[in-house]
Amino acid sequence: MLATGTPAPDFTLPNGPGTEVALADLLSKGPVVVFFYPHAYSSVCTEEFCGVRDDWSAWSELNASVVGISVNTPFVVAQWKQEIGLPFELLSDFNKDTSAAYDAIYDEFFGLKGVAKRSAYIIGTDGTIAYAWQTEDAGVQPDMDAIKAALT
Predict the structure, then answer these.
(1) What is the structure's pLDDT at 130?
(2) Residue 50 annotated as catalytic
(3) CATH of region 31-150, choose from 3.40.30.10, 3.40.50.1820, 3.40.50.10440, 3.60.40.10
(4) Model pLDDT for residues 71-80, shown as the tens digit of each residue
(5) What strands, in cross-sheet order, belong to the sheet with 89-92?
(6) Among the residues of 55-106, which ranges form H helices?
(7) Percent share of the chain, pLDDT over 90
(8) Helix (H, G, I), strand (E, B) or coil at 129
(9) Is the predicted pLDDT of residue 110 greater than 90, yes or no?
(10) What is the pLDDT of residue 90?
(11) What values do phi and psi take at 50, rounded to 5?
């Protein structure tokens, strides 16, 4: 896990086939909350992101961008976002470069290698890590209240 105060690795990742989202563009609007998650359509990831969606009025008042990053393909993240009606971006790190840069890859996940590790970061407008959380247990979700409090 990256430590608070360290520079956040830059990224530009697809949010669907043929379109991309850049960290620099998001930071120009304010802080960025980055959730790394193992897989679209999994029960814990669905619960985590539907919880953010259902509390979106509170999240939107914090003036921060929210993104989810997994190693799923751009097609999968775009479809899953649409199916569960998320008001924030899901990004594909299929090549695993960003997940590795954020030290957010499980050594092994149900026999699979290179799966994004459940993590949460807040990146301040200065480009440094302002908040960091990570778990080895993919069944554990981040403390959303703590993340929102760190943004205030």
Answers:
(1) 98
(2) no
(3) 3.40.30.10
(4) 999 999 999 9
(5) 89-92, 65-70, 32-36, 119-123, 129-134
(6) 56-60, 74-84, 97-101
(7) 86
(8) strand
(9) no
(10) 97
(11) -70, -30
Element (H, E) at 6: none
Neighbours of 68 (CB within 10 A): 25
What pLDDT is stored for residue 141 in this prediction? 92
Strands (E), the chain: 12-16, 19-22, 32-36, 65-70, 89-92, 105-106, 115-116, 119-123, 129-134
- The encoded tokens of residue 22 equal 């850049």
Query: Which residue ranges make up each domain of the chain?
Result: 31-150
What's the rounded mean pLDDT across residues 30-35?
98
* Residue in 8, 21, 45, 116 annotated catalytic: 45
More confident residue, 49 or 44: 49
Cα dihedral sign for 72, 87, 143, 35? positive
